[in-house]
From TrEMBL, chain B:
<keyword id="KW-0813">Transport</keyword>
<comment type="similarity">
    <text>Belongs to the binding-protein-dependent transport system permease family.</text>
</comment>
<feature type="transmembrane region" description="Helical">
    <location>
        <begin position="12"/>
        <end position="31"/>
    </location>
</feature>
<feature type="domain" description="ABC transmembrane type-1">
    <location>
        <begin position="59"/>
        <end position="239"/>
    </location>
</feature>
<feature type="transmembrane region" description="Helical">
    <location>
        <begin position="97"/>
        <end position="119"/>
    </location>
</feature>
<dbReference type="GO" id="GO:0055085">
    <property type="term" value="P:transmembrane transport"/>
</dbReference>
<feature type="transmembrane region" description="Helical">
    <location>
        <begin position="220"/>
        <end position="239"/>
    </location>
</feature>
<keyword id="KW-1133">Transmembrane helix</keyword>
<dbReference type="GO" id="GO:0005886">
    <property type="term" value="C:plasma membrane"/>
</dbReference>
<keyword id="KW-0812">Transmembrane</keyword>
<keyword id="KW-1003">Cell membrane</keyword>
<dbReference type="InterPro" id="IPR035906">
    <property type="entry name" value="MetI-like_sf"/>
</dbReference>
<keyword id="KW-0472">Membrane</keyword>
<dbReference type="InterPro" id="IPR000515">
    <property type="entry name" value="MetI-like"/>
</dbReference>
<protein>
    <submittedName>
        <fullName>ABC transporter permease</fullName>
    </submittedName>
</protein>
<dbReference type="Pfam" id="PF00528">
    <property type="entry name" value="BPD_transp_1"/>
</dbReference>
<feature type="transmembrane region" description="Helical">
    <location>
        <begin position="66"/>
        <end position="85"/>
    </location>
</feature>
Length: 320, 261
């Protein structure tokens, strides 16, 4: 199966289609992007000039394959409610993929299916070729609701996964303390979740999941409930962490900026029933700096194009 | 140095008790009823009871039955309640059963149980067990039901089996609710303890109380009421201390606990 699929969006939006054809490239895998971007100073770049893609020799290997997945919910009011319809998507190893779409289009449901928390009505999801039948430590979820263990301190929460995996207490503690420092919570090790702010809880949730080294991070609107400032800071932190150890990330969001800023690939979904509308490769150099990116016309174009697509799907939704 | 506000807070329970005794004393003096001794008379009778070896053994026997009934109830009710809260089929099986037992005053079952098991310790302990079980099951059930699903999912992703999730996530997450049930259960244990001894008069604190009533020793009756009440307050206070310590992580920061101390 070819890696990135176009959704079944019928009308072709004139968005960097040139760009979309460059899909075969290896996503970000130890590619010296910094050099590429140095050559092209942000200000001088004209919108039409795209960074030449660094075509890689080895093909990107798929880590997650979602194959014609549909999810139908039995609801009390509307009997059969189709939340996801015929979703196919391949996610390459070490890629940062965002799922973007209006509220209720099934983003969370899709993430839960990959996590193994929900079994799809039809179709199948695979992780490294193996059918996903349940949750496992190879896929680490970070929920929008944090879902921290309130009876455990920050340290206890972060240590929970490693301890469960049989890591010795002293070792697990040392690793966890390092992680807590990395997410910027040094000094809060012995606080209980109720004593933390929303942003701090989100950091703990991230550290707790990173602590057991999942190969894939599944993040469901992790920054959705945060104020703009904290959100920006956590986005930067997440990028730094990700650029350091390049896990595969599946990131659900409804913020266009966030999706473009963070991702290698943005999967746009549409509503009723939830379908993939478009898969857009984001060809922006890494490491990404927010201050540079906001001025970058390529970034701006991505944001504007995707927002326009959003509006169109809204209008389509109203019309029907 | 204790601040005046803290001093008032500390003294409040004592003042409340003194106030109650004063009202009692005055009411008794005004009513001049033989079966309503003054507070002073009742308090004077307390050392006599506690000094009597026989009476003391009776009270200890009561407490032993109560402790046994309470502990067995808690040990069975918590797992059952948690399982019911997490498993539809377990809940479906036990729900009708509990719904039948729930509204029945447990003491009303005593005559039947006495027929089967006699008037000894087993019957009384069983009644205490029944009295304690239901609130503990109910609160464990509600607590387990309310556990956030994403918390269980997080545990599953870390590799916890369903049984491990029940013990290591559902149990601690539901603990505040469970302990609320246990606290109710503790008071109910004391109440059923006395009632059971009222029905099966053979030994125990309740027996002393009702014997004294039969013989018209009203100061002893009221002294026993004070003793039983004090036991209740003491047990509840100890339990509340332990509870507060166990669920410190869940308590709102500034909160006046509903307890005697
Ligand atoms: N357990 C469920 N039972 C019935 N319907 C459900 C259930 N979970 C989700 N749905 C429905 O499926 C659809 C998709 O839900 P989902 O939570 O995946 O949306 P979402 O894209 O994550 O939305 P949001 O951005 O608001 O979080 C919704 O219409 C919702 O009503
Ligand atoms: Mg969602």
């Amino acid at each position: 199966m070819k890696a990135p699929q176009n959704g079944r969006g019928s009308n072709d939006v004139s968005h960097g289609c040139e760009n979309r054809r460059l899909s075969g490239r290896l996503l970000a895998k130890s590619v010296p992007y910094a050099k590429a971007s140095d050559g092209m100073t942000v200000v001088s770049a004209r919108p039409s000039e795209w960074v030449r893609p660094v075509t890689s020799k080895e093909p990107a290997s798929a880590i997650i394959e979602i194959d014609r997945v549909s999810q139908v919910f039995q609801t009390s009011a509307r009997r059969d409610h189709v939340a996801l319809s015929d979703i196919s998507l391949t996610i390459e190893e070490r890629a940062f993929v965002s799922i973007l779409g209006p509220s209720g289009c099934g983003k969370s449901t899709l993430l839960y299916i990959v996590g193994g928390f929900v079994t799809p009505t039809s179709g199948a999801a695979k992780m490294k070729g193996q059918a996903i039948t349940g949750p496992g430590p190879d896929r680490g979820p970070v929920f929008q609701e944090f879902a921290l263990f309130p009876w455990k301190t920050v340290l206890g929460n972060v240590m929970y996964g490693p301890r469960q995996q049989g890591v010795r207490a002293t070792e697990a503690e040392a690793q966890s303390l390092a992680l807590i420092e990395m997410v910027g919570l040094k000094g809060y090790e012995n606080f209980y979740p109720k004593e933390l702010s929303g942003g701090m809880k989100q950091r703990v949730a991230l550290a707790r999941t990173l602590a057991y080294h999942p190969e894939v991070l599944l993040m469901d609107e992790p920054f959705g409930a945060l104020d703009a400032h904290t959100r920006t800071r956590l986005q930067n932190d997440l990028l730094n962490i990700w650029e350091r150890d390049r896990k595969t990330v599946l990131f659900v969001t409804h913020s266009v900026d966030e999706a473009v800023f963070l991702s290698d690939k943005v999967v746009m979904m549409s509503k009723s029933p939830g379908r993939i509308r478009e898969v857009i490769d984001i060809d922006l150099p890494r490491p990404r700096r927010r201050s540079e990116l906001l001025l970058d016309p390529r970034y701006q174009k991505y944001v504007v194009d995707i927002e326009r697509m959003f509006d169109e799907s809204d209008e389509a939704g109203i019309a029907s | 140095m204790i601040s005046p506000a803290a001093l008032i807070r500390r003294a409040a329970p004592v003042l409340a008790c003194i106030g109650l005794l004063v009202v009692w004393q005055v009411a008794s003096l005004v009513l001049k009823n033989d079966s309503f001794p003054t507070a002073v008379e009742a308090i004077r009778a307390i050392p006599d009871i506690l000094g009597d070896k026989e009476a003391l053994l009776n009270i200890l026997a009561s407490l032993r039955r109560m402790a046994l009934g309470f502990c067995v109830a808690v040990l069975i009710a918590i797992p059952l309640g948690l399982l019911m809260g997490r498993s539809r089929s377990v809940a479906a099986f036990f729900n009708p059963l509990l719904m039948v037992i729930y509204p029945v005053p447990k003491a009303a079952l005593m005559p039947i149980i006495m027929l089967w098991l006699g008037v000894g310790d087993i019957t009384k302990t069983l009644v205490i067990f029944l009295g304690v079980s239901l609130p503990v099951i109910y609160h464990s059930f509600e607590g387990a039901k309310a556990v956030e699903e994403k918390m269980l999912w997080s545990g599953a992703a870390m590799g916890l089996s369903p049984a491990q999730r029940l013990v290591r996530i559902v149990l601690p997450a539901a603990l505040p609710e469970i302990l609320t049930g246990c606290r109710t259960g503790l008071v109910l244990a004391l109440i059923t303890m006395i009632t059971s001894e009222m029905i099966a008069r053979q030994s125990g604190a309740g027996n002393i109380l009702f014997n004294a009533l039969d013989m018209g020793q009203y100061d002893t009756v009221f002294a026993m009421i004070i003793i039983v009440g004090a036991m209740g307050i003491f047990l509840d206070t100890i339990f509340e201390r332990v509870r507060a310590r166990l669920v410190r992580w869940s308590e709102p920061q500034f909160d006046l606990p509903l307890s005697f101390s």
